[in-house]
Amino acid sequence: MATNSLVSIVLATYNGSRYLDESIQSCISQTYPDWELIIVDDASTDDTPAIIARWQSQDNRIRSIRHTSNQKQPAALNTGFAQARGAYLTWTSDDNAFRPQALQQMVAILEAHADISFTYTAHTLIDAAGTPIGLVPPDPYECLVFYCCIGPCFLYRRTVYEKIGDYTVDPDLVYVVDYDYWLRAAVHFRFQPIQDDLYLFRVHASSQSSLHAARITISSVYALLRHLPEIRWVTQADRARAYLLAGIKLYESGIPLEGMKYICSAITEHQILRHDSAFAVEHITYDAPGHVRSGHQIQELLFALPVNYPGVPALQHQVWGIYHGVRCFEGYQMRQRVIIRRHFLLALRYRPTWIGNRGLLRIALWAYTGWKIPRRLTQHRSRI
Question: Which is nearest to 65 in space by CA: 54, 45, 81, 88?
Fold first, then answer.
């Protein structure tokens, strides 16, 4: 049975002896004393069992369970939470660590706000040696429909677990069990971020996020598409944006037919061009902030659009106008007149407003006549 203030921490580990001491020590160092740590050893073959036994002998708040065969992280988490007695639940990893105030501050939020069922915090990225790399602040929970915005430090009420059950053991979602769980929770419960940095997340070559990045991207999209229709608090505009981004990610990940399906859905069913046409133009044109896709990539994405649908021809012109304009600026940076000549007239054809961009006109003048452009006129290209 759950006790009113107890926090249950599940730590699933498999051959995690390298950093396991640090992870367990971070639990013992909590300023909030009312916790239990349930360590699930998923059939480790290294020194993990000995490390667990040593810590368990030192603190009676630590319990352990060992799988006789390796069952992967989702099953290990489910084993741990089945034994949890706390009113508040969380889990951590064998290569990460809580800051001392983590549990105290998260419990305080949940106890102060009865309508909040899930809280999460900022965290610091560290390298393999524990050197800080950078701070990651928490994004608003509404971003959950675009990506996994919930960081690795979180706490939720037992009522969440009782409502939505175990972590999925679906092999297609094995690397995004957290994101899948948060999406399921978002259907029924409210989330609240904490701006304080309360966790250390280790980035190293053997972490799951490093080893399986491509698969994580695809699995995240599938998890989102599975649960997005059930999340009622999402605005119509954000729902349209979410389907567009999901379609683009699938298309770029080598699943073009499914990608085209969701891109078209964003345009027709969810009316992205009515809600936020600039968003559609931006994400079809750019694959990263400030980095325009190749002409071939843009052509493929535009091919997925219903060409006769209202607003699509205008979108195509805007995308190609930006593409050709940016290529002109890049041609000048490389001092390649032939590139500018290839793209300048097309830039004006697709985006006539370029005629008012003095930087682009001076670049074209240089490309066609050789006139030297003062550096101050080309150091900063106009907003496009």
Answer: 81
